[in-house]
Write a structure and sequence with these properties.
Blueprint lengths: L10 E4 L15 H6 L1 H7 L3 E4 L3 E2 L11 E5 L6 H13 L3 E6 L9 H8 L11 E3 L9 E2 L7 E3 L6 E4 L14 H15 L5 E4 L23 E2 H6 L4 H16 L2 E4 L9 H5 L7 E3 L2 H5 L14 H17 L4 E4 L8 H4 L8 H12 L4 E5 L20 H12 L4 H11 L36 H5 L5 H13 L4 H6 L1 E5 L6 E8 L8 E8 L5 E4 L4 E7 L11 E4 L4 E6 L1
Parallel strand pairs: 1-2, 1-15, 2-5, 5-10, 7-11, 10-12, 12-13, 13-14, 14-15
Antiparallel strand pairs: 3-4, 6-9, 8-9, 16-17, 17-18, 18-22, 19-21, 20-22
């Protein structure tokens, strides 16, 4: 395998609106990110991914971009961004922007001109089609609910396609002029000194442009737009062209958000010469999805979750690719609330979850607040939520017969706002996030769970994460954790999450095996080892194993990282 600069790095996602507000307007900003670079450096972070900071009307929290070349005034100025880049570079850190090019905002000048003249040049930048039999061109349900075709104002039978909100019209990637404009924009940002991009919803750029209708899959008479995307072929041609015209020129790090990929295409996406450097492993998150929305989402099953992660690890390994390993992100609820059984939702459990994820094969991505164990936030009313998707799912739950309490409960378990509550820096007013009124109400537990309290306590989740990242990057173990094979262990045991990272001898003469053993069950569990313990590298509890042992007993919520002989 050709070694890349990013193989041994640890990444951290920042949701800027909720990270740190420095001017008291209740919205996080770029100066706040710059102010916390040393905090992130101490955590061991190399790569920082910023969720969108472009000019936007914020219908979908910045994923509706009105100007790809401008910083949203909520976040500061281009000078603030350039200063952040400069300060990150001084610390040997890389900045990733969020690349959102399946769609733009309906406030973008391209779309404004398209609506003025749907048949003209800019009309060709979007998917504008005539209706059929007095109805929309096809019966697609958007990802945010409702019809994915919106009437073009001032016309009798023209519609434009939006796979997300109606304010997010899809860009027509079949148009070479659109692609050239996108590549020009990407290179403009790369020339500023970016390390690369996280690439949003990218599988959606390739449509089945026949736009066939499908058998309805809901009482609204619509079918999921994902059906049409799954029937499209040739997205790789677009992705290879984009890579060739942009990322490849800069040796950029790229991480794709990829859903609905055909399984046989994995190597094309993240193999030795794949479309992207890596892509997120969403196997655990898709496992939880319900067929008809959040109100019937699947309950957590430890064994199914563990097996899904193991399967993804082995498939990526087979194609020689690296996946990006996540516990949570801005689109998901908090991992500590989702992937830990009730008895494990405490600091020991959070450390265990961190360890089993961070030491997998691939690129670890932490999400802001994960390192202190932030949790889901219970709200009293749907009015306390901001997220467009949450409000749609709430309405759907009520329409499908849920009570108000049941509909709100499914939002507590699944809402994207769980991850978007402001960062909890201290137990002071508003968690030290802002001196004003937060744009989204704080999680009330900020007085118990916050950075300041945990920095003062050696056994905190935060200080454990620091040790964990340092272990992954330690010179004597870095090659094992970066290039070592993933080998699942004890798969027949229901509550055990265990695997080895095994490095065959390298040119430098390095080799070795490190075992990660965790007990997600309520009861202690004894495990027999094929090789004796050489050294305990990390444990989340005082009791552990000793050198020479060939059997270890894991308490409930205990994790051990063992170097074997």
């Amino acid at each position: 395998m050709e070694k890349k600069w990013w193989h041994d790095k640890v990444a951290y996602q920042i949701y800027p609106k909720s990270f740190l507000d420095t001017n008291g307007d209740g919205i996080g900003d770029l100066k706040g990110v710059t102010e916390k670079l040393d905090y992130l450096k101490e955590l061991g972070i190399d790569i920082i991914w910023l969720s969108p900071i472009y000019k936007s009307p914020f219908v979908d929290q910045g994923y509706d971009i009105a100007d790809y070349y401008s910083i949203g005034e909520e976040f500061g100025t281009m000078e603030d961004f350039d200063h952040l880049l400069e300060e990150a570079k001084k610390r040997g850190m890389y900045i990733l922007m969020d690349l959102v090019v399946n769609h733009c905002s309906d406030q973008h000048v391209w779309f404004q001109k398209a609506m003025e003249d749907p048949e003209g040049r800019y009309g060709g930048y979007f998917y504008i089609r005539k209706g059929k039999d007095g109805k929309e061109p096809a019966n697609y349900r958007s990802y945010f609910g409702g019809n994915a075709w919106e009437p073009v104002p001032g016309t009798k039978d023209l519609y434009y396609l939006h796979l997300f909100a109606k304010e997010q019209p899809d860009l027509n990637w079949e148009n070479p002029e659109v692609r050239r404009e996108i590549y020009k924009m990407i290179n403009w940002w790369m020339d500023k000194g970016l390390g690369g991009f996280r690439i949003d919803a990218i599988i959606n750029i390739k449509k089945n442009i026949d736009f066939p209708s499908y058998e309805p899959d809901g009482p609204d008479g619509l079918a999921s737009a994902a059906r049409m995307i799954e029937d499209a072929h040739g997205v790789g041609d677009f992705l290879e062209e984009m890579k060739r015209e942009t990322f490849q020129k800069y040796d950029a790090f790229t991480v794709g958000e990829v859903f609905n990929m055909k399984e046989e295409e994995l190597k094309e996406f993240i193999g030795e010469d794949g479309h992207f450097s890596t892509m997120f492993d969403f196997s655990a998150h898709t496992l939880m999805q319900g067929s008809d929305g959040w109100h019937n989402s699947r309950k957590f099953s430890f064994r199914e979750w563990r097996d899904a992660l193991f399967d993804a690890q082995e498939k990526a390994q087979e194609v020689g690719g690296f996946e990006a390993n996540i516990i949570e992100n801005h689109d998901e609820p908090r991992g500590a609330s989702r992937f830990l059984p009730e008895w494990a939702q405490k600091e020991a459990g959070k450390k265990m979850l961190a360890t089993t994820s961070m030491l997998l094969r691939g690129i670890p991505f932490l999400y802001q607040g994960q390192e202190i164990g932030m949790t889901n936030c219970r709200r009293n009313s749907i009015d306390e939520y901001d997220d467009i998707s949450t409000k749609d799912q709430y309405r759907q739950a009520l329409a499908d017969g849920c009570s108000l309490e049941e509909a709100l409960a499914c939002c507590y378990e699944n809402s994207r706002d769980n991850a978007r509550t402001p960062m909890q820096w201290s137990g002071d007013a508003n968690g030290g996030f802002t001196s004003g009124t937060p744009w989204l109400a704080m999680n009330p537990n900020f007085r118990e769970i916050n950075v300041k309290e945990q920095e003062s306590r050696p056994d905190s989740v935060l200080n454990y994460y620091r040790k964990l990242v340092a272990l992954r990057k330690a010179p004597e173990y870095k090659d094992i954790f970066t290039y070592g094979r993933f080998v699942p262990l004890y798969e027949d045991l229901d509550d055990i999450f265990a695997y080895s990272r095994v490095l065959e001898e390298t040119e430098e003469g390095r080799s070795g095996e490190i075992r990660i053993l965790a007990n997600y069950g309520k009861q202690p569990c004894a495990l027999t080892l094929e090789k004796p313990v050489k050294q305990v590298l990390l444990s989340n509890m005082e009791t552990g194993a000793k050198a020479g042992q060939t059997e270890v007993t894991l308490d409930s919520c205990q994790v051990l990282v063992l170097l074997t002989q």
